[in-house]
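Researcher: Structure prediction, please.
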Amino acid sequence: MELSWLKPLIESWQSSQSQGRPPHAVMLTGTPGSGKRAAAAWLARSRLGIAGGSAMPEYPWTIPEHADLRWITPPEDKHAIGIDQIRELVSEISLTSYQGGGKVAVIDPADAMTTNAANSLLKTLEEPPGDTLLVLVVDRPGRLPATIVSRCQRMNIRVPAEQDGMAWLQRFQAGANWAKVLREAGYAPLAAVEGMARLGDTQQMASDFAALAAGREAPLQVAARWSKHDPQFVLGWLGRQVQMCISKATNGASAGDSAAVGDSVLERIDRRKMFCYLDIINRLRSQPAGSFNVQLTLECLLIDWAERLESPLGIE
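Model: Predicted structure follows.
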């Protein structure tokens, strides 16, 4: 199914191609679930002339199969892309194209590269060999060195307007109750698809989150349950909930009607402390996976929330 909101990105790419000035390195950024990886797969197909693709990026997407394409991800047992992976990539793309149509390398996510790995990519970004395209899929641009960012053409993918996102989701799965899921996903349709698949988990988490603030649940028990899920999923959901609580406290119920916490509880929480709390969550999300103790971190966060952020926040 075509990702219609990516049309501006595709038109921009096609324009640069027709004018004979295609970039040698692009950096795809955007909200999780906006379609960065589907766009990367489409760019690879387009550049290498792989037959059978659509005129637009599609969902679900797959990594194209081609002798001149390398798609680099962290190894299964690691959380980072290491220097040996990048050195091997640099060596391979310096070779002659197997099929004569240039080479494409996708680094996904590029912000998972170690410092040494990023440094080893710099020379290739400055002087790309032959007809090579480097595509950096970036989840957290702030974690990339400025020297990498400055050598790429940034292509930011915006989420569609709410009504357009709803229309796409209804075509994807008619009859489903997408409205709340889409709002909780930050209006990113592909994140909403994942959210619908995990609806049972998020409903339980929403119940836990409200019960904590109302004093009906113990933080340590909730943290034990939440620690069984992927940390980025939990922190992403928690961050969106806090954002909705802030919006609700600032602008009224209609602005945060998907927030799990009721007005009576929010009235007793200092809004300034909610901003600090959100900042802590976002900083945790930006840290590499495996760099902190997940259960202990969740315990500290949830103890603070259960105490309605009245005490100094437990994670700095």
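Model: DSSP finds 14 helices and five strands in the chain.
Researcher: Thanks, that helps.
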